[in-house]
Design a protein that fits this description.
By secondary structure, the chain is mostly helical. It has one domain: Rhopdopsin 7-helix transmembrane proteins (Up-down Bundle), CATH 1.20.1070. It contains 11 helices and 3 strands; from the N terminus they run H-H-E-E-H-H-H-H-H-H-E-H-H-H. A 3-stranded mixed β-sheet has the order 1-2-3, with no helix packed on it. Helix 2 runs antiparallel to helix 3, helix 2 runs antiparallel to helix 10 and helix 4 packs antiparallel against helix 5.
């Protein structure tokens, strides 16, 4: 008669698999891409560099996972400190968001010469994500799950802000194969699916925890006292039940999230043959209404 696998064994299987995929495999890919990609413009160089902190962050947090507000840590070491994890996340996530928004703004310049509202949407997305990072530090310090929900909602709004621009650029983009067109098509999906996941799944999880805390009359830290607590206190646990609710987003984040940054190292752009025609076509559209009046 076969015995069922203990839940904690599943946690270890998940942890080992994540380390093989998100640490060993991703770091090998990062090193290979850094060697292979020969950047010739400032855009290409920036896209290449921005992937490094993002992929390193995903790898680090795979080795030293933590749950901020519960103060759960996988290992009893200062390297698994909550505040260290949060700071890695801040650096990596801002690098990744800027990388994504930079690609949008660059492809826009190739297609239209740089539409003001599209350029602003790219910058707005990054600024909104900076706000989300500030909210994250606040919820980590106070351990208030309500603000954790607000953080992921603002994260989602950041990408939702780029969706109209991505959709417009797909419509304007010349037909034919190019990394720029592929990027825009993916963005029209990601800029809806990512916010939807945050709004419908992630935020409700935190709100549910918030209501439980309220019911039990939890007392929250003040900001500075909470930062000190996040730097010094960690509750080491390797029990499946403590991690299971967060394993889905961790898996997606540390694997597919890192892969997106790796792919963006190739700097999405139109093929040379379509760039000039795209700009010329956009200019013809701009002058058409005026020429009709002549």
């Amino acid at each position: 008669m076969s015995q069922s696998i203990e839940p904690d064994a599943w946690l270890w299987a998940w942890y080992v698999t994540m380390n093989v995929v998100c640490v060993a495999f991703n770091l090998i890919l990062l090193a290979a891409f850094l060697y292979k990609i020969k950047a010739t413009t400032s855009y290409e160089t920036t896209m290449k560099i921005l992937a490094v902190p993002w992929v390193l962050e995903c790898a680090y947090r795979t080795v030293f996972p933590s749950l901020y507000l519960q103060r759960f840590a996988f290992w009893d070491t200062p390297l698994n400190s909550i505040i260290v994890d949060r700071t890695w996340a801040c650096i990596g996530e801002l690098s990744w968001t800027y990388q994504v928004s930079l690609a949008l703004r660059h492809v826009d310049k190739e297609i239209s010469g740089g539409k003001c509202w599209v350029q602003l949407s790219g910058w707005l997305a990054f600024v909104i994500y900076v706000v989300a990072e500030c909210i994250s530090y606040y919820n980590v310090a106070t351990t208030n799950e309500f603000w954790a929900a607000m953080e992921v909602i603002v994260d989602g709004v950041s990408f939702l802000a780029m969706w109209p621009a991505a959709l417009y650029l797909v419509w304007c983009c010349p037909k034919g194969h190019s990394s720029g067109r592929n990027y825009l098509i993916v963005m029209t999906i990601v800029c809806l699916v990512y916010p939807l996941y945050n709004f419908a799944i992630d935020a409700p999880m935190y709100i549910k925890r918030y209501h439980i805390d309220q019911h039990s009359h939890k007392e929250y830290f003040s900001f500075w006292a909470g930062l000190k607590d996040a730097a010094s206190r960690r509750l080491v646990t390797r029990h499946y039940d403590d991690w299971k609710a967060d394993m889905t987003w961790m898996t997606i984040y540390f694997s597919a999230g890192a892969w997106s940054g790796l792919l963006l190292m190739f700097a999405p752009r139109l093929s040379p043959s379509t760039t000039s025609s795209a700009i010329a076509g956009d200019r013809r559209l701009d002058v058409a209404p005026y020429s009709a009046l002549m």
